[in-house]
Amino acid sequence: MLTLRTPLAAPPAIPPATAPARAEPSGPAARAAGGDPRPHAVIIGSGFGGLAAAVRLGARGYRVTVLEQLDAPGGRAYVYRQDGYTFDAGPTVITAPFLFEELWQLAGRRLADDVQLVPVAPFYRVRFDDGTVFDYSGDAQAMREQIARLAPADLGGYERFLQASRAIFEVGFEQLAHVPIDSWPAMLRCVPALARLQGWRTVYGLACRHVRDPRLRVLLTFQSLLVGGNPFSTTSVYCLIAYLERRWGVHFAMGGTGKLVSGLVGLIQGQGGSVRCNQQVAEITVAGGTATGVRLADGRSIAADVVVSNCDSAWTYKHLLPAAHRKRWTDARIERARYSMSLFVWYFGTRRRYEDVAHHTIVLGPRYRELLGDIFDRKTLADDCSLYLHRPTATDRSMAPDGCDAFYVLSPVPHLQSGTDWAQRAESYRRQLEQRLHQTVLPGLKDEVVTSRCLTPQDFQDRLSSFRGAAFGLEPQLLQSAWFRPHNRSEEVDRLYLVGAGTHPGAGLPGVLSSARILDTVVPHGQSLV
């Protein structure tokens, strides 16, 4: 057996501020020099939020430069290629594909010309600890049959839960997800609708209003973990995920999620923008209360008319915007905030195929509430685990050599406040996941693995610049949602904007792409700056 555990290189340490090198011209300076006449937008980070923001600003008359600290674009959607296997590092559950289609339309192209999205069925195969299996899908009749088998007394309650999910979706997603909520009047306008929809309840609390079977309660609430939220404390607004998935389905990009990344990069370049890798931003520069550009780790400065950060919002304010320019997001407030869990991710390829394993599988452990309490509240690395297993080769065999499978398995774990030394703990924890998978859905796994690598909470901090290694930024509790999150239009300095999981509306691909949609409202059109 050949098992490779390639260490993940962290970006270089940011040096102390020095006298900046000559800045690249932008705005009036660039126009005076006879360069591109469009105003310049600099985007920090090339995750889906940053790439979507770049396309939107390019369509609004900006020359866009995207700066990525890694050696390839994607951020959390980075792609690892190893021993003939392709591993998508991050997001693999694609919902609301119209948000991608809209980006291609803005660039004068069709999504289907560059990326083939195919539906995944079932959405998830859920395996309970007792071996019971439930296929969670968008087929209404199939779902009724599954629930009638699992918890027949709750069939009516499930239908009522879906009705509640739809009502929340129509407000929380269709009306509010793409709208800036950066003022008290804007927030107050949301309150009556959210109160009517009982947004003060938790995800788990809303499920409990409708169904009684404990297994069905798990099935209706685990999705909040996909956006970094504990269903026992996350606002019930996130119950909209159930209807969102039913409305548009769950999809996979043939060739991997990285195909969407490369497609977006192509759109940006087609608009005359650029994506520069190995470019670590050390500071957002400010003059007169307005963002003026960025200083790179190598000392160079890049001037800009607007700056958009797709970096983790806490990292943006704590490490990129000097404290002298921050009044709301002070170091003390950032430290006090509650952050999502982190993830331990093991990417591996097998020499054989596991034909009976679905594209998306949830392997539940013996505990639910108690395990989540360990992760979110006690910040303890537990002896048991619940897992999400991704098998892209169930849909696309090109992701692995012939006759083989590509996988990744992720385990929700506490962020770095747990004090876990992942340099020492990573291999033993990987073996724990390997044994769990062997016992449940991948028999004989240890003897089948031929290539392997891991991503730990320490990597989320050191490689991906996530504060405390939290995989999804701020925890989506009620008082850390909407107006209470860092705003899309920075409340600290002018001409600085935030996109991604750490700002409104939150994590998950629909939320991240919607955060970029908000720029259409809050960023001035490029023509107004010429």
Structure description:
32% of the residues lie in helices and 17% in strands. The protein contains 18 helices and 19 strands. Strands 7-6-15-16-17-14-18 form a seven-stranded mixed beta sheet. Strands 9-2-1-13-19 form a five-stranded parallel beta sheet. A three-stranded antiparallel beta sheet has the order 10-11-12, with no helix packed on it. Helix 2 runs parallel beside helix 11, helix 6 packs antiparallel against helix 8 and helix 6 crosses helix 10. The N terminus is likely disordered.
Whole-Å distance between the termini?
Answer: 61 Å
The order of strands across the largest sheet is 7-6-15-16-17-14-18
Structural class computed from helices and strand pairing: alpha/beta
Based on CA atoms alone, the radius of gyration comes out at 23 Å
Q: Point out poorly predicted stretches.
A: 1-7, 9-22
Number of helices: 18
Largest sheet: 7 strands, mixed
Number of strands: 19
Strand content of the residues, in percent? 15-25%
> How helical, in percent, are the residues?
25-40%
Principal-axes geometry comes out as globular
Nearest-integer average pLDDT? 92
